[in-house]
Amino acid sequence: MKIAIGSDHRGLKVKSAVIRLLSDLGHNVQDVGAYNTQSIDYPDIAHAACQQIVCGKCERGILICGTGLGMSIAANKMHGIRAALCNDTFMAERSRLHNDANVLCLGAERTQNIESIVNVFLSTVFEGGRHQNRLDKITSLEN
Question: pTM of the prediction?
Answer without folding.
Answer: 0.97
